[in-house]
What does this fold into?
Amino acid sequence: MQFQTRLRYENRAEKAHYVWDKYQSILRTSVLDVGADEKYLTRYLPPETRYWGIGLGGSPDQEVDLEAGVIPFAAGSFETVLCLDVLEHLDNLHAVFDELCRVSSRYVIISLPNAWAGILQVALFGDYALRHHLKYYGLPPEKPVDRHKWFLSYEEAAHFVATRAQKNQMRVVQIDPYYAINWQRWRNRTFRAAAHLLLRFSKVNAENFFISTMWAVLEKERQG
It folds into this structure.
């Protein structure tokens, strides 16, 4: 595996450290952070890196409503474009995915959450009740401030990224899973083994219920 790290994360600040430790070799020239929030990644970037954060909410360098479907930069403006746990919040994620590829001169790094794992984790380890709605997918009595608009599995996310990348003349360098829960503990191993056993004759891959997030690195295909 080309990009890897032993770090774990539970919040956005820790995720930035994870990203730097894992992908720092392609985060040194210029970086566009789509959905930058508080720009936590800037804590780790070297001073010579040209960084720009866009999005709504937090403290981005530039407020951009991605639902408008256009990222306001010329083609190839940044060597590496980041879009981490953002696309699932957008109705027009297909168009925004294409925009990520357009404004990148070489790399795109994307993460997408696996909703299937969220259901299992709430069922096994959560404190589910009507007053505790499933994060991003429940139906609270009042309109939520933030929610996901796509309910996807790990395999579906990986297939979407690989297929859409090809349409944008980009190749997949790496797609890999992130597990938020330590499934090596004895109780967790039991749950995992049971799921694989129950689904052994099904077309559903049981791992879809355990992987928390899909991470992908795309690279622009060289012309000529």
Q: What stands out?
A: The mean pLDDT is 89. The first strand starts at residue 30 and ends at 34. Residues 75 and 103 are 4 Å apart (CA to CA).
